[in-house]
Amino acid sequence: MTRVAVLYGGISAECEVSRSTGLQVIPALREAGFEVTPIEVGEDIGAVIAALNPRPDAVFNALHGRFGEDGVIQGVLDWLGIPYTHSGVRASALAMDKVAAKTIFAAAGLPTAHGRVVPTDELAEADPLPLPYVVKPVSEGSSVGVEIIKRGDNRRAEVACNWRYGKTALVEEYIPGRELTVGVMGDRALAVTEIIAEAGVFYDYESKYADGGSRHIIPARVHPDMYHRALDVALAAHRALGCRGATRCDFRYDDTKGEPGRLVLLEINTQPGLTPTSLLPEQAAHHGINFSQLCAWMVENAACRV
Prior knowledge:
single chain, alpha+beta, Rossmann fold, D-amino Acid Aminotransferase, Chain A, domain 1, Dna Ligase, domain 1, four-stranded antiparallel beta sheet, 34% helix, 25% strand, globular
């Protein structure tokens, strides 16, 4: 397998993140010895299909967000019979739908946050949960649209009126404590990283992608039982949705009353970022896997119709 097309950019709210990922992946794959064709994706899916002719041996899917991470482009590539990196149609669609993913996680006995889907007009009228709580889109990634409604602020109605992510929102209890994340490669959970957002208590879009927006502590300095629990839950979540390739699970860890505390699985990312500030490459490097080797591993594990 030598010819790889890299899909990046896209039309989601995360197109700039995807562009950054793609621009990192392209030279890394060339360094690994692949013949690489970059394809910046726009609104014309016909143009994307045309750019995949002649057919490559594999597609590196560097798209993030809707249409790239939710099973849509995966279905196109399945139709064309081209192997691609990361998860297939079903796992991608389930992971992108936070409500569906939570249902499966709960059925698998994994720890999730309490919450419910709320129509935005209901959110505008009253608090749907005791304060503080978190409001998030059902189907977005990279913390796009996530808001924390705290005691004493008056932002609830404003958030509801300015909501741009459909007629409903997922509202969950706010879990104090620390932000943790775990990467998975195939059947192996890599490490637990603690993320400290420099701008505040929340690892938002700016913290994720701005230079100096956050600090990453690897391995996370948490109770050993919780460290191993986080590894186990991440791998279990990966398997529960039927994911393949690399994923990354995000957690909150409430140790405000001492350790060991409460570990809560927030979501799984089937297209972990590969930008200069991303977490999965750091965890791979922690195990001696450099960025070029990580990207090559993803290509070597590409598949379709799975």
